[in-house]
Amino acid sequence: MTGVYFEDHLRGPSPHELGVRDETGFSETEQQLREYFAGERQRFDLPLAPRGEPFRQRVWGLLRQIPYGETRSYGQLARELGDQALAQAVGAANGRNPLSVIVPCHRVVGADGSLTGYAGGLERKRFLLELEGAGSVTRTARLF
């Protein structure tokens, strides 16, 4: 799977970037998403093949390691990559995550715990975090 996007997704791919549509595996993806939204699944077990430069791939790999119901800040992820100064680059890579929900970019928040940019919209981000029991995040800030 190379991409899962919301209908009104910000910064999604243009139609020519999507390539040939392949329905293979979609039923399993749909089933796992259904289980996630029903509170029955905390981790996705799907073959993923997101397209992106090496730095983005590293960030997306870190996103997959954030446990269900927990959050990390952009700075924390930058430190995991070895350089606190990479926080903005982490934010940019997070914003280009092509596998919404499945690669949990919604679990990344501002250093003060505030909601910051989410290509699916901040209300969806808040919903996903509350679904996971990550606590009530009330403040919002715009990252992009």
From TrEMBL:
<dbReference type="InterPro" id="IPR008332">
    <property type="entry name" value="MethylG_MeTrfase_N"/>
</dbReference>
<dbReference type="InterPro" id="IPR036631">
    <property type="entry name" value="MGMT_N_sf"/>
</dbReference>
<keyword id="KW-0489">Methyltransferase</keyword>
<dbReference type="GO" id="GO:0005737">
    <property type="term" value="C:cytoplasm"/>
</dbReference>
<feature type="domain" description="Methylated-DNA-[protein]-cysteine S-methyltransferase DNA binding">
    <location>
        <begin position="54"/>
        <end position="134"/>
    </location>
</feature>
<dbReference type="InterPro" id="IPR001497">
    <property type="entry name" value="MethylDNA_cys_MeTrfase_AS"/>
</dbReference>
<dbReference type="GO" id="GO:0006307">
    <property type="term" value="P:DNA alkylation repair"/>
</dbReference>
<keyword id="KW-0234">DNA repair</keyword>
<dbReference type="GO" id="GO:0032259">
    <property type="term" value="P:methylation"/>
</dbReference>
<dbReference type="InterPro" id="IPR023546">
    <property type="entry name" value="MGMT"/>
</dbReference>
<dbReference type="Pfam" id="PF01035">
    <property type="entry name" value="DNA_binding_1"/>
</dbReference>
<dbReference type="InterPro" id="IPR036388">
    <property type="entry name" value="WH-like_DNA-bd_sf"/>
</dbReference>
<dbReference type="InterPro" id="IPR036217">
    <property type="entry name" value="MethylDNA_cys_MeTrfase_DNAb"/>
</dbReference>
<dbReference type="Pfam" id="PF02870">
    <property type="entry name" value="Methyltransf_1N"/>
</dbReference>
<dbReference type="InterPro" id="IPR014048">
    <property type="entry name" value="MethylDNA_cys_MeTrfase_DNA-bd"/>
</dbReference>
<protein>
    <recommendedName>
        <fullName>Methylated-DNA--protein-cysteine methyltransferase</fullName>
        <ecNumber>2.1.1.63</ecNumber>
    </recommendedName>
</protein>
<feature type="domain" description="Methylguanine DNA methyltransferase ribonuclease-like">
    <location>
        <begin position="19"/>
        <end position="50"/>
    </location>
</feature>
<feature type="active site" description="Nucleophile; methyl group acceptor">
    <location>
        <position position="105"/>
    </location>
</feature>
<comment type="similarity">
    <text>Belongs to the MGMT family.</text>
</comment>
<dbReference type="GO" id="GO:0003908">
    <property type="term" value="F:methylated-DNA-[protein]-cysteine S-methyltransferase activity"/>
</dbReference>
<keyword id="KW-0227">DNA damage</keyword>
<keyword id="KW-0808">Transferase</keyword>
<comment type="function">
    <text>Involved in the cellular defense against the biological effects of O6-methylguanine (O6-MeG) and O4-methylthymine (O4-MeT) in DNA. Repairs the methylated nucleobase in DNA by stoichiometrically transferring the methyl group to a cysteine residue in the enzyme. This is a suicide reaction: the enzyme is irreversibly inactivated.</text>
</comment>
<keyword id="KW-0963">Cytoplasm</keyword>
